[in-house]
Amino acid sequence: MLVLGIETSCDETATAVLNISSPGSFKILSECVASQTDVHRAYGGVVPELASREHLTALPLLLEECLAQSQVPLEKIDLIGVTCGPGLKGCLLTGVEFAKGLSIASRVPTVGVNHIEGHVWAPRLIHPELEPPFLALIASGGHSEIQIVKGIGEYELIARTVDDAAGEAFDKSAALMDFPYPGGPALAQMADTFAGKPRFALPKVMREAKGLSFAGLKTAISLLVQREKQSGSFQSSKAEIASAVQNAIVDALLFKVGKALEASRLSTLVVTGGVSANAYLREKAMSLRVPHVLFPAKQHCMDNAAMIAYVAGIRFLICGECGSQKESLEIHPRWPIEHAGEQLV
Ligand code: KG4
Ligand code: ZN
User: Label partner for 320 (CA 20 to 30 A): which of 12, 81, 217, 309?
Assistant: First the structure.
């Protein structure tokens, strides 16, 4: 089955073509991503209206490029998978309406995919052996979640974002340290240049909170940066501060993951989403008491369409036309993954 994936939930436009025979047997034929980072940098964050317009311009070009790379003409596509939520309303609408148009023109069924569900299964793209049940930490720019994954469409929530998501915590901390948007990866890169234990003690966030919360971290970083700037030592201690910030965020996430592993006694942990590209998070996750720890390939940590095509394909293989709509496909800007298995109407 040849599946075209379309992803436009935030600031990355992505398309992919996968050939899927079964959940464990598939091939990525092509994948294309157009990042809008440069467009949003001047504003210090994603501007939804600009993002939707960028998707609109990029989608036809990316579709063409992706089909050409895969050497699959549109007429040969069997199924379209498109992100319906969660995400920015205008961005989701652009992708879904584009998919609907393609679907009607080429008479191909379309499956609406939950973006978080895409992230959960992204590691399968390089680990076809990954089987549920497993524990998943989804750490992205918009969401932090810990879920027990029992199967496609079957999730049990353990904890989710209360305030900032993990990627947001990285990006906002980076902004306080004068890194240009989105500063998360740059902060991480600088943190990794610091060897040893940073002198700065940031609060141990999230431990007591019920959900995943970074309350108090920004204030602590802001005060620390202010103090270091006033004493003229900010530049020389920047890598050390970055390391302290990275430690605090990773510690907070993995403390909760450790508790969930203990309670659930699951033997596999999946760490996914944009922040799973972080080398320190990967290293620390590998040292948890769990036999198997799996991550996505680097290109599938960030938003991509291969994970969307994959989930669409598997859903279609499991339940055929169920979950597939054409004209009636709708966006769900707030769509908890626990409801991803329900029919979209
Ligand atoms: O999953 P993603 O592409 O988008 C959302 O669905 O939100 O995640 C993007 C987030 C951004 O906040 C970015 O700063 C963060 O992932 N990120 C990182 C790293 N690479 C990306 N954060 C920390 N360390 C990294 N290496
Ligand atoms: Zn994402």
Answer: 12
The reply to whether omega before 203 is within 30° of 0 (cis) is no
CA-277 nearest atom, ligand 1? 26
Contact status, residue 98 vs residue 106, Cβ threshold 8 Å: no
Chain segment 282-323, per-residue pLDDT in tens: 999 999 999 999 999 999 999 999 999 999 999 999 877 655
Q: Which has the closest alpha carbon to 69: 273, 306, 299, 277? A: 306
Q: Are 148 and 264 spatial neighbours (Cβ–Cβ below 8 Å)?
A: yes
5 C-alpha vs ligand 2 centroid, how far in Å? 14
Please work out whether the CB of residue 302 comes within 6 Å of at least one atom of ligand 1: yes
- For residue 188 and ligand 1, the question of a CB distance below 6 A is answered with yes
**Residue to substitute in 40, 164, 170, 246 for testing ligand 1 pocket (most ligand atoms within 8 angstroms of CB):** 170
